[in-house]
Amino acid sequence: MPVLKTFYSTLIATAAAGVMATGLALPAFAQSGNFGLELNAARDVGEGCRLTYVATNNTGEGLEKASYEVAVFDQDGVVSRLLILEFGQLQADKTKVVQFDLSDMACSDISRLLVNSVSECVGAEGTSPDCMEGLTTSSRAEIQFGL
């Protein structure tokens, strides 16, 4: 029985070491929280649509630059354009409101916005965090917004 007990003790210790090693290998950005983007409002302005976003950096790491490529879908579900939404500098554990204007497109012509990819993401310490990891999206507008 002592051999079996030693085997299980070794197995548990090895598994625990593997879990800890895996956890340490993950970037701090992904471990400490999420990065939230909320499409807060969409309002027609002149001939275009003004999109208001609320960006919440709950990652524990400041960002010098953050921008995302977003696909804009029309009411037929066809991608009408690709945009780069630049959120700029985002301090750790802060919320920032940013507005973007889409010229020549009414808000009612947009059915969905999709975060296609990260365009740029630079940590405050010069790091390159994975800004898609832990990204959450939501919408308070009539337009769907997601990943």
The strand count comes to: 8
Strand order of the largest sheet: 5-2-1-7
Radius of gyration over alpha carbons? 21 Å
Which class best fits the helix and strand makeup? alpha/beta
Distance between the termini: 53 Å
- Poorly predicted sequence stretches spanning 5 or more consecutive residues: 1-31
Proportion in β-strands: over 45%
Largest sheet: 4 strands, mixed
Shape: elongated
Q: What is the helical fraction, as a range of percent?
A: 10-25%
SS element count, helices: 2
Order of helices and strands: HHEEEEEEEE
Kindly state the mean pLDDT as a whole number? Answer: 80
List the SSEs and their pairings.
Elements lengths: L1 H24 L2 H4 L3 E11 L2 E10 L5 E12 L4 E8 L7 E9 L7 E14 L11 E5 L4 E3 L1
Parallel strand pairs: 1-7, 6-8
Antiparallel strand pairs: 1-2, 2-5, 3-4, 3-6
Describe the structure.
With 147 residues, this protein is α/β, with parallel strands linked by helices. The protein is built from 2 helices and 8 strands. It has a 4-stranded mixed β-sheet, with no helix packed on it. The protein has a 4-stranded mixed β-sheet with strand order 4-3-6-8, with no helix packed on it. The longest helix has 24 residues, at 2-25. It is elongated and about 40 Å long. Mean pLDDT is 80; it is low at 1-31.
